[in-house]
Design a protein that fits this description.
The complex is a heterodimer of chains A (682) and B (61). Chain A has 682 residues and is mostly helical. The two termini of chain A are 45 Å apart. The relative contact order of chain A is 0.15. Chain B has a domain of 41 residues. Chain B is flat and about 35 Å long. With 61 residues, chain B is mostly helical. Classes of the chains: A mainly alpha (682), B mainly alpha (61). Chains A and B meet through helix 4, helix 8, helix 13, helix 15 and helix 22 of A and helix 1, helix 2 and helix 3 of B.
């Protein structure tokens, strides 16, 4: 009993912190209360719930050989120390998602987001990652698509693969959109990000020919280059000659990114992708650690309200009410379907013992949720006036400080035009108005926190551009790697109809598939960039819906596997989160399709514009009939996309129910695990 | 102290998908004596290609 006492105390500390966060009204709450509430909830959940799942639900067996033991080859299958593997897995799952979603969700106040991240990760997100890791680990580290095919049949596997490709397209579009929003009209930011391309090429040449394999060395050289780029970026931006050269409109940037994605994804990997990945990975881990330390040292008070009036669905950042839209806006960080692809990728081939699985599967996801909590804290320590100035579309608040200050003050968040101009000046930007997408907001918050610890106000502009660079860098890596992954997925899919396409070494099919992938995400990116409401408004919910649907699919697979293992009575562990995600995503999807509110429903929006077009009228922002037709067309494409996601998830629900019922009719386990008795392969 | 540093180094390398070369050599000597063993440079290039050139997405959003 005594061994439980520290955990009971921790649980009490968490409960106290959470009630301070939830109940305080009027006086400012310190951000550390949120941190304490989150950390103690996570630790207690890890100690009890993860252990329960490991022992009772999965019945992990430390003596059972893992793929890394059975198929050891020193390359793909390597029994890896669990702390080292934790680092590998965390670096693979942590990306822009957990940083952006919580920032956008802050429009409803910090409380709803905090609660969803804590409850969501403990009961859904970490469970999903852990279960998929377990299932893959018992099947030689196979991928999610193969696992679904093995346990639920060929058709289910193909549908899931198709769904995963569509999700990849949306993720790439939304990530690229974030970069566009962060770099548009910002010569300083643009210069530093552009400088990373020659820098990465240089690093690639270094690791290829000069000192092969010296990753540490070359990363240090790269870091020095990056810091120099940030420092000289200011002079470049202010130069009358170079400043305009690095100033781009959003549409120009959109085409630059599409071109970049097409070229980068066919270059040899050692030249650009690998060295850029070294930089972005180390910078990402470093920045996350620095942010955690910075928040603890600064202990900032929260300025955002606990709950704002926008829970009713009329928020300027994104449209839609608390249910279901909060639960798809914060996807990564609470539960992310994309992790199912990682947990069934390299990690299960590296795990040394089944007893390491809780730390890797459940623990790494808790860490990601902690990153999301920090992002939420970051957005909430800013003056809410600044937050809404940065995140509301220009169509709502206008484009200059006077109109923005008037509009945001009218929302109930008083702010003066002077503060808006001063904030922009502090971080070295022309303007901070309508810089939606989450990244610039988080960068202002990081500049606030970092400059408090190092450098004071004079360093704010440096830290702002450091934060923008860090986010843009790993998003560009993801765009490059994701385009390659999308290309292979597409080749697999087209190969079902045209077998010649399966040849992944063929130049023709490879180029066609790459071109199609880039065109697909480029289409949504262009649509987002030219969207009058700022794009994030339209694309982020579609991304959230698709990501949470993939999570529901992964949890349904886990449920089917539990039924096939004859562990039905434990299946609630995956059924409850799967059901919740189905409720959220199906209702959000149906609202996006059929809501009569033109701000929410794609079809209602299309109908509004097409009625006006038929009467020969122009609706803002369209300036010509051609633009009116373009908006109607985009709405219908978005609606079709959401419709496809709904069909994918509903058909997988059907396959899951069928698999579970079939498993119930049989007396013995039917799950296709590698038997425990199998001798380790020599 | 040296052990801690070695572990941090291996963690950092594993974050970018680069397993331990010595571990690979050890595995080859223990299980496939006589088989050709890649040099450090060959190993680095082989792993780089496997991480980025293959079918794995490798990264999250």
């Amino acid at each position: 009993m005594t061994r439980h006492i520290p955990w009971i105390l921790m649980a009490i500390a968490g409960a106290v912190a959470l009630s301070v966060v939830a109940v305080s009204r009027g006086e400012a709450v310190n951000a550390l209360w949120i941190v304490v509430a989150a950390v103690s909830s996570f630790l207690v959940a890890y100690r009890y719930y993860a252990l329960y799942i490991a022992r009772a639900v999965m019945r992990l067996d430390p003596a059972r050989p893992t793929p890394a033991i059975r198929r050891a080859d020193g390359l793909d299958y390597v029994a890896t120390d669990r702390v080292v593997l934790f680092g590998h897995h965390f670096a693979a799952i942590a990306g822009a998602g957990p940083l952006v979603g919580p920032v956008l969700a802050a429009q409803m106040g910090y409380l709803p987001g905090t609660l969803w991240i804590i409850v969501g990760v403990v009961l859904a997100g970490a469970v999903q990652d852990f279960m998929v890791l377990f299932i893959s680990m018992r099947r030689d580290g196979r991928s999610l698509g193969e696992l679904i095919r093995m346990e639920m049949g060929q058709a289910a596997g193909t549908i899931a693969l198709f769904g995963a490709f569509m999700i990849m397209v949306i993720i790439l579009a939304v990530l690229a959109l974030i970069v566009v929003k962060a770099l548009a009209e910002s010569p300083w930011g643009m210069f530093t990000v552009a400088a990373t391309v020659p820098l990465a090429l240089l690093m690639g040449a270094y690791t290829r020919w000069i000192r092969p394999g010296r990753i540490g060395e070359v990363s240090l050289i790269g870091l020095v280059g990056l810091l120099a780029a940030i420092i000289y970026g200011q002079a470049i931006a202010e130069s009358p000659l170079w400043g305009p050269i690095f100033t781009f409109t959003p549409v120009q940037l959109c085409w630059i990114l599409i071109g970049y994605g097409a070229v980068a994804s066919v270059l040899p990997v050692w030249l650009l992708l690998a060295p850029r990945d070294y930089l972005s990975t180390f910078l990402k881990i470093g920045a996350i650690a620095a942010l955690a330390i910075g928040i603890v040292i600064m202990a900032p008070p929260l300025k955002m309200h606990a709950v704002t009036q926008f829970i009713d669905g009329n928020g300027p950042v994104w449209s839609g009410g608390l249910f279901p839209f909060l639960f798809i806006t914060i996807a990564c960080g609470a539960v992310s379907g994309f992790h199912a692809l990682i947990a069934s990728g390299t990690t299960p081939k590296l795990i040394a013992s089944e007893s390491d699985a809780p730390l890797i599967g459940y623990g790494a996801m808790l860490m990601e949720a902690f990153v999301a909590i920090m992002a939420l804290v970051g957005a909430s320590i800013l003056d809410p006036g600044i937050y809404f100035t940065m995140n509301s579309p220009a169509a709502v608040i206008g484009a200059d400080a006077a109109s923005a200050s008037a509009a945001v003050t009218a929302m109930g968040f008083p702010i003066t035009p002077e503060l808006i101009t001063q904030t922009a000046k502090d971080v070295g930007e022309h303007s901070i108005i309508s810089r939606a997408g989450g990244a610039p907001t988080l960068a202002v918050a990081m500049a606030e926190i970092f400059s408090h610890v190092i450098g004071g106000p004079a360093m704010k502009a440096f830290w702002y551009h450091f934060a923008i660079l860090f986010e843009a860098l790993f998003i560009l890596t993801a765009v490059d790697a994701g385009t390659r992954a999308g290309r292979f997925m597409l080749q697999d899919l087209i190969g079902l109809a045209v077998p010649r396409f399966k040849d992944t070494s063929g130049i023709g099919p490879g180029l066609v598939a790459t071109g199609l992938t880039v065109a697909a995400w480029g289409f949504f990116l262009y649509q987002g960039v030219t969207d009058p409401l700022g794009g994030v408004n339209t694309l982020w919910p579609v991304f959230g819906i698709s990501n949470q649907m993939l999570a529901a699919i992964a949890l349904m697979l886990a449920t089917a596997v539990l039924f096939r293992m004859k562990r039905d009575r434990y299946a609630w562990v995956t059924m409850i989160p799967a059901a919740w995600l189905l409720v959220c995503t199906l209702s959000a999807g149906l609202l996006k399709l059929f809501s009569a509110d033109a701000k929410v429903g794609f079809l209602a929006h299309a109908a509004k514009f097409s009625t006006a077009a038929n009467e020969g009228k122009l609706l803002s922002p369209a300036k010509s009939m051609a633009e009116m037709q373009q908006i109607i067309f985009n709405d219908r494409v978005d609606a079709a996309l959401v419709g496809i996601f709904l069909l994918v998830v509903l058909s997988l629900l059907f396959f899951t129910i069928r698999t579970c019922m079939a498993a119930r009719r049989v007396d013995a386990p039917t799950a296709r695990e590698i038997p425990a008795s199998l001798v380790p392969a020599e | 102290m040296t052990r801690l540093f070695a572990k941090l180094r291996r963690t950092a390398l594993m974050m970018v998908g680069m397993p331990d070369y010595d571990g690979y050599v050890g595995h080859m000597q223990a299980h496939h004596p006589g088989a050709p063993v890649m040099t450090r440079t060959q190993f680095f290039r082989e792993r780089q290609e496997a991480r980025y050139g293959g079918k794995k997405g490798g990264k999250c959003c």
